[in-house]
Amino acid sequence: MRLFFAIALPDSARDAVGEALRGIRGASEGVSWTRRANLHVTLRFLGEVAEERVDELAAAVGPWVRRLPPPELRLVGGGAISDNRHPKVLTVGVEGDLGGLVGAMEGAIQRLGFPAEDRPWLPHLTVGRVRMGRQDRTLSALRELGEIARFRPDGVVLYESRQGEDGYRYVELRALAA
């Protein structure tokens, strides 16, 4: 099972992202846009994990989610991950103090024997993936976005990522309430 911990967006934030991207999407060929149902803020990608470890992971991270509940988050601006001259992943920025929660989760996950994350955590919302072309206008339009939404998450979700014929689908395995 391919697993990850994330913050799910409430419907109001999903709607606001859709509205903010409406004009950008229509003018951007060569981009595979993230489905509304798949919008989330990844806190920790785990990769392939045996099914029998799901409860163990939830039990290790759950107390931290309750102890360090997610703060108010702001979805603001846009950009890209990877080379800005040839972006591959298009994003919306996420602002809010999630560092304490992410650090505590990382410690709990490592104590279960998972390797440390090999790159710094970058809070973002993946909104699209570049399939062809440079997408200069798309990237420029994303950078011009102001604040899109504010919300306070209900907690953290442990998801399974399942690949199907029509792309990835994220299945909620455990909801860890704040």
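(the above was protein one; protein two follows)
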Amino acid sequence: MNPAAPLAMANAAFAKDVASQPRITLRGGDALDGYEDPPPFDQSLDEVTDTYLERYSGGLTFLDAASWRHYLPRLIGYAVRHFGQFTDVCDALLNSLRPPDREPPRLASLTPDQERAVTAFLESLAFSESSAHHAFACQVLEEWWIPGALYRKRAE
């Protein structure tokens, strides 16, 4: 699968989330990681560029579900642009897609369209020899995203 196809799916599926301002920015998550209060959203300081994602991807761990969904398609876009390179940004993204889910949930907060977009993205990473993250993407798929996943309980 062309890696750009899952990005188009993600952009469509997460359009409402991207349009809303995140309650906690990646910069804010980075501040929380340093035991500081998260700064408020600032349009110029929180412009989502590759440099911003590279600087603040560690803050992904500290985002609430809505803020996490706000950044997902941008993180997927970064991974597509750097498909053949190992990057800390993609590693942080993949870690954020792993169980266990939180309380309140992030993974279970996705709509079916959003789940399909994330699964397509993970499959593109997992099943392309040019992917720098194919082994980790396979693991993430097996843990949560495929039918019969190891750690996901599905309704009967």
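Reviewer note on protein two: The mean pLDDT is 95.
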